[in-house]
What does this fold into?
Amino acid sequence: MANGGSRNGRGGNVLEMARPPRLPFLTAALFAIAAVAVLVVTGSFYTIDQGELGVVLRLGKVDHVAGPGFNVKVPFVDSIVRVSVRTEKLLYDNLPSYSKDVQEAQIRISVNYRVNPANVADLYARYGTRYVDRAISPVVPERLKEVFGQFQAATVTADRVRLGQDVEEAIRTGVPQDLIIIESSQIENIDFSDAYETAIEAAAQAEAEVRKSRNQLERERIEAEKVIVQAQARAESVRQAAQAEADAIRLRGESEALAIKAKGDALRQNPELVTLIAAEKWNGELPTTQVPGAALPFITIPQKAASGG
It folds into this structure.
């Protein structure tokens, strides 16, 4: 019995040694529970930046749209897709296009757009996160080619403003405006082939030379007209001077004639005036010589006085 008891005792020790300890298992379980709790708590909250909206997907289906700030979601069920509603710029470089006269050009164009905040859920439902690649990028080259093909290559530079306006309007009508708003577009560069640009430069230089010649002829014509006007002015000045001199001579003659006539009238009306003027001018000296029988000048002796003497 002692031996049997001893065998049972050794068997019990073997069973006790084979039994795993309980403390490490409990620790692992508690750690797992704590980790799940942390994930649940941290997965229940999220934030959306200003200038963005959050499309909340519940098990993959659009549930609602969350605004900027602190938000709550269902852990492991909801997922968030952030969509920018800021104005964004797209740049398309080296887009090949042909003008109306079949001249190839490489065009760089930029497009400013923004997502319509009111329809972010519809935008995601229709295009997902690749709405630029699916809704905008296919439209820009196509509409650019359509509009650019309506312009002559030689007049593109002069009509660049109208070209840009027409391209912008065409892009705007090609994009769903209820989902994506095209704010503006800008044609930043138009690059024709080197051969065509050389020909355009030569034509422009020739036109410049023609304009220069025309301007030179116009200047010469103006100078000739100026000389003619100056000559006419000088001739008119000489004529007016001669006319003034003639008028002066005529006036002097008329004045002298009037003076002579007045003297003549005065002498006729006053015969003794001649004697008076002569007497006033006589110096009182008699002539040293005298012709026999001639009367003494300026002396009139009354007849009666002469007889009495």
Q: What stands out?
A: The CA atoms of residues 25 and 31 lie 10 Å apart. The first strand starts at residue 45 and ends at 48. Residues 194-269 form the longest helix (76 residues).
